[in-house]
Amino acid sequence: MRPVFAVGLVFAGCCSNVIFLELLARYYATMVTMFFTVSVVNNYALNLNIAMPLHMIFRSGSLIANMVLGIMILKKRYSVFKYTSIGLVSVGIFICTFMSAKQVTSQSSLSEEDGFQAFAWWLLGIGALTFALLMSARMGIFQETLYKQFGKHSKEALFYNHALPLPGFIFLASDIYDHAVLFNKSELYQVPVVGVTVPIMWLYLLVNVITQYVCIRGVFVLTTECASLTVTLVVTLRKFVSLIFSILYFQNPFTPWHWLGTLFVFTGTLMYTEVWNNLRSTKSQPQRDKKD
What we know:
Helix content: over 70%
Strand order of the largest sheet: 1-2
């Protein structure tokens, strides 16, 4: 009987294991495909006359996409206060986008034909950002349902999201090679302490990879350890600090209208997350504890 029992365990256990592994792999394959697409499109948009400040402001409109897709897919309903906050975000993005369009079309150094071509590329960049925004929101909804079904595992999600897309970069091999050649031609820099001389662009890339890992790791940990409100607030504040740094350090063009649009975007984001209401409830909680 023991051999029969062992054979039964092999078939029952292994077959069921394959089924559940295939289900999990299918879910992660879908999420990884969306993650890879969003990352590539967002990065490629910078090649289409999209300035970094506009790039960051536009991506801050993820709340709009999340709300729209949440209504359409999850059949969610929101309060008037949240609709008002999304309206502010929409107006802010429109102001920044419109003023950036005027800057593209009014470049005096370009001829009329070149100016039209630059504006056409800019429109294509706006389309790419819009697509990536909607795809990112859809990925967020998919992640939410996946975590509810299988639980939150930040390290597992971090690994699959970044390891599985690697074969996809084969399709970008020629572009990666061209940039590698450009990196090799960059100014040489001697690394302190180590004393090794390397092209400075490779050093920038290394620091970018390290800081990106720290950032993404923090976001994935936040999604499993904190409420969604906290995650949204932290990411929003991070975008605001990055925007200010980009404007001041790299001297990117930023008019008073851009500042107004930025104010609308971040005010609307904070309204949506109901930060003030949560701060009031947090302050009132200790007073209640004292009374008790």
